[in-house]
Design goal:
Largest sheet: 8 strands, antiparallel
Shape: globular
Oligomer: single chain
Distance between the termini: 21 Å
Length: about 425
């Protein structure tokens, strides 16, 4: 059992590297340890179509969940970037979401409950299997996005949605001489309720089989009349065409795991400034042909660049990591070369994050070093003996969200309200 393996590692203070489908193992900082494979801990625990809820084991793939729920005309409205073979456990642990988050919410909004094994081997539960659930502490949000550093997710209860009658993606290209603000201004007043709106630069559009031009992707859904009316409302933006039905699936796979990957988030009203700043920063540091994707409703710009070990593309990683985002924006780095990580501050270096880690993983064995936390073997040994423990009493979800560095919950307290916590699927 997973709990027995973790308990033994705790007792021997053996670091564990948690892994599922292994599609994004290169993400975040280098992390060594004995492999703890949760991919075989898979399968449906309970599925109640009438309640629009499903409970699955962490090793279940996103593809398998889609197949099971699709047979009932339902779906899990999560479209994380990466391979659909990625596991739901990794998706939740890394808080990975995609374009649908602007309509259906982030990962934390779709997770109803979790079963988690702490670093000491204790099996704990948070939340529940039904939508109307009341819990004393928001421990679900604590683990979503913690990258397995506070516990190994073993079981997940999720909120589902009914599939729409029509699900259509439109591809719109504008005049390249026109400013983005002028081209896309009609979006602010159009009668639209899209599932997703994404702006792609020319290299990314080309990578997913579209014309190599700056392109707007709009995903519309509902009944025939609703979709038709919204399609007509978009006509003022330019050449509107129906894109292949798998366009967003291809977009999810177009930001590869072997590339430099970052998310830059700012206020939604400044998304075009952020877009231009990121593109200019890449050019200034000779990081050519970046693939840019902007979630307009969230003020988020994703950037992906190929990593070539034989031809380093950036000579000054310190300057590059400092200046990729415009002033006031936040950069969340997902993948960098090993030599670049020392220039990026750890998101969990604050006191509360370290005390939470000492409580839930006292021997510091779970994905040690993955988030760049300042924890030596000596400190880990002290934590085992309770020198840096903190009681969970009084540590509510609201308390975590107020602390920018706290892992697993909204570490975006210093970010714009809609800045996401998306990360690649492990």
């Amino acid at each position: 059992m997973l709990s027995d393996r973790i308990r033994a590692a705790h007792d021997s203070r053996t670091p564990l590297r948690i892994m599922g489908a292994r599609t994004w193992l290169a993400a975040m900082r280098p992390c060594d340890g004995d492999r703890l494979d949760v991919s075989t801990h898979a399968g449906i625990v309970e599925y109640v179509p009438g309640d629009l809820t499903i409970t699955v084991r962490a090793g279940t793939s996103m593809r398998d969940i889609a197949a099971v729920t699709g047979a009932e005309g339902q779906w899990l409205a999560l479209d994380p970037f990466g391979d659909p073979a990625g596991t739901i456990g990794a998706t939740v642990a890394t808080a990975s979401d995609g374009p649908l988050a602007s309509t259906f919410g982030r990962v934390r909004d779709l997770v109803l409950g979790l079963e988690v094994i702490t670093g000491g081997g204790e099996v704990t539960r948070a939340g529940g299997r039904v939508v109307k659930n009341v819990a004393g502490f928001d421990l679900v949000r604590l683990h979503v996005g913690a990258w397995g550093t506070l516990g190994v997710i073993s079981e997940i209860s999720l909120r589902l949605h009914a599939r729409p009658e029509v699900d259509e993606t439109l591809c719109i290209t504008g005049d390249p001489r026109q400013a983005l603000e002028a081209w896309l201004a009609p979006l602010a007043t159009a009668a639209l309720a899209p599932y997703a709106v994404e702006l792609l630069n020319a290299p990314l559009a080309h990578a997913i089989g579209l014309e190599a031009r700056t392109t707007l992707l709009v995903r519309l859904a509902g009944n025939e009349d609703r979709v038709r009316a919204q399609r007509e409302a978009l006509a003022s933006l330019g050449d509107v065409r129906v894109a292949p039905p798998d366009t967003f699936a291809r977009l999810a796979r177009a930001l590869p795991s072997d590339a430099l990957t970052a998310r830059v988030s700012h206020e939604r009203t400044r998304v075009f400034d952020t877009w231009r700043h990121v593109a200019a920063a890449c050019a200034r540091h000779q990081a050519w042909q970046p693939r840019l994707c902007a979630s307009l409703a969230r003020g988020l710009v994703r950037v992906s660049l190929p990593l070539d070990a034989d031809a380093p593309m950036v000579s000054d990683w310190g300057a590059f990591t400092r200046t990729l985002a415009p002033p006031g924006a936040h950069t969340a780095w997902q993948q960098l070369p090993a030599e670049a990580w020392p220039h990026v501050a750890s998101p969990v270096a604050d006191t509360l994050s370290q005390r939470l880690r000492a409580t839930l993983d006292p021997a510091h064995i779970l994905n040690r070093g993955l988030l760049g936390e300042p924890m030596s073997d000596d400190l880990a040994a002290n934590a085992v003996h309770g020198d840096d423990r903190v009681a969970m009493n009084g540590v509510s979800g609201a308390d975590h969200r107020a602390t920018p560095g706290a892992p697993g919950v909204d570490r975006d307290a210093t970010r714009p309200p809609d800045a996401p916590s998306t990360t690649p699927t492990a």
